[in-house]
Specification:
Elements (H helix, E strand, L loop, with lengths): L7 E6 L9 H9 L3 E7 L11 H20 L4 E5 L2 H12 L1 E7 L4 H16 L3 E5 L21 H10 L44 H6 L4 H13 L5 H4 L12 H5 L5 H11 L6 H22 L22 H9 L5 H13 L4 H14 L4 H11 L7 H10 L14 H8 L4 H6 L31 H17 L1
């Protein structure tokens, strides 16, 4: 850096790939110094979990969108790959940065990285500041009367709602300071996004993702608008029906921080300013569940690998055969709701939440497979694979987590599909081989004889596998 150049500001983006309501970016804009905006692909720092295939696809397109938005605002997105502590330190020295800004993260390995950068900055006379951007209620701010973390969702969410209203979102800066440059007028060198090879190639399985999603901030805003104009008022009932557009589908946009929960919260307030329908409150509680999951991860950094309830270390999981696990992964268990969900997941990178619960229950209870097998598969295949929600939800289904589903709650996939997909709209969309069956027979195709040709027989019986699960859970309960 030219010694005569003004000091610069370095903004380090992570799961906050947006200009709107981005406190670190807004602070940088207010300083007015030459600006470096960097995204670091860090899969090398100790404990940091590498991305799955679906989230890599999303990240590629989200970064493409973000780079264009930053350029339109007068800035530039710099990409670098490697251990974040080293990358940020070297970049700050290279650009003569006096200030390093970022929005806070809450996973254990990520917090250690951030603390290390903050310590290094202090030692070298740089200002380092972090901001609240991606959670409305940070984990250490919501505590029981005894001062500890909540272990049950309902009192946690009540405490959140009894506190201060989430802050108002910040508007995106209209203009950002130009990037800092060296004596020759060149900005810092970065990686070409294609060199990261985030997109699948051989084979390219992303066709269904591309036709389903619009990654990036504009896509997030469109999803929010569509939700407010449609499903929001009937969310309480619509969210359970997989054959209709009854949910927000904002989860991958929240996962990558393309829209903030503050923006969503206050958009609901603006649309329903006086007496919001009960359904809107139910949706807000789903935002609250996301916050609760992040508190769980904050307090239990090994949530994806260790039972939240340690007594489950003694649980007698049964390793499924390779054929059974493959049948579940590929949507060929013989149970239409499970199979439709798993095929939706493979085709679109997403699965309806009601069906997620049924598919997860089938794996961990009917097959008695360790919940970590399912969590790892979802981590690789979901575009909204979230470091907190994914393991917390799997542990909830397994019974090993906080505020967990009771051990005796075993989702019957036939009952679930009859109740929530009575007209089989969802089943027919993802199981075309069953399209010839009527609305009654399609839920139990093994009873339909030749009409279900090409569809597999059930890989396990529901009554027998339910009895085995209950017996196994009872043995754990009895010690």
């Amino acid at each position: 850096m030219d010694s005569g150049s003004p000091s610069s500001t370095l903004v380090w983006l992570r799961d906050d790939l947006r200009l709107d309501d981005n406190p670190a970016l807004s602070e940088a804009a207010s300083l007015g110094q030459p600006l470096i905006v960097v995204y670091v692909l860090d899969e090398d720092s100790p404990g940091v979990r590498p991305l799955g295939g679906a989230t890599k696809w999303w990240l590629h397109h989200s970064l493409t969108d973000l780079a264009a938005a930053l350029e339109a605002a007068g800035s530039r997105l710099l990409l670098r790959r490697g251990p974040a502590t080293d990358i940020i330190r070297d970049l700050a020295l290279e650009t003569g940065a006096s200030t390093v800004l970022w929005n806070r993260r809450y996973g254990g390995p990520e917090r250690r990285v951030d603390a290390g950068v903050k310590d290094w900055a202090a030692e070298h006379g740089l200002k380092a500041a972090s901001f609240q951007a991606n959670l409305m209620f940070e984990p250490w701010t919501v505590r029981t009367g005894a001062g500890g973390p909540y272990k049950v969702f309902t009192p946690f969410w009540r405490a959140c709602l009894d506190g201060s209203e989430p802050r108002l979102p910040l508007d995106a800066p209209e203009r950002l300071p130009a990037p800092s440059t060296d004596a020759g007028g060149r900005p810092p060198a970065g990686d070409a996004l294609d060199s990261w090879r985030l997109l699948p190639r051989r084979p390219d399985w992303s066709g269904g993702l591309a036709t389903t999603w619009q990654p990036g901030e504009a896509g997030a805003w469109q999803r929010l608008a569509d939700f407010l104009d449609g499903p929001a008022e009937d969310y309480g009932t619509g969210r359970d029906v997989p054959g209709v557009e009854g949910t927000s589908r904002l989860s991958p946009h929240l996962r990558f921080g393309e829209i903030s929960p503050f923006r969503i919260w206050h958009a609901l307030r603006e649309r329903f300013p006086h007496s919001a329908p009960a359904d809107v409150g139910i949706f807000r509680s789903e935002l609250g569940w996301r916050e609760f999951c992040w508190q769980l991860l904050y307090e239990n950094p090994q949530l994806a690998t260790r039972n939240y309830r340690p007594e489950f270390d003694r649980f007698a999981w049964q390793a499924p055969s390779n054929a059974e696990l493959a049948a579940w992964q590929q949507g060929r268990t013989g149970y239409p709701l499970v199979d439709a969900g798993m095929r939706q997941l493979w085709q679109t990178g997403w699965m309806h939440n009601r069906v997620r619960m049924a598919a997860a229950s089938f794996l961990v209870k009917n097959l008695l497979a360790d919940w970590r097998l399912g969590e790892a598969w979802f981590w690789d295949t979901l575009v909204d694979a979230d470091a907190a929600s994914n393991p917390a939800n799997w542990q909830w289904v397994a019974g090993s987590g906080a505020d967990a589903s009771p051990y005796f709650r075993i989702f019957n996939p036939v009952t679930q599909s009859r109740k929530f997909d009575a007209g089989a709209r969802y089943l027919r969309e993802y199981l075309p081989e069953l399209s010839g069956l009527d609305d009654k027979a399609i839920h139990e195709p093994w009873k339909a004889g030749g009409l279900a040709a090409g569809y597999p027989e059930p890989i396990v019986g529901l009554p027998e596998s339910r009895a085995r699960a209950l017996e196994t859970y009872q043995r754990l309960k009895d010690g």
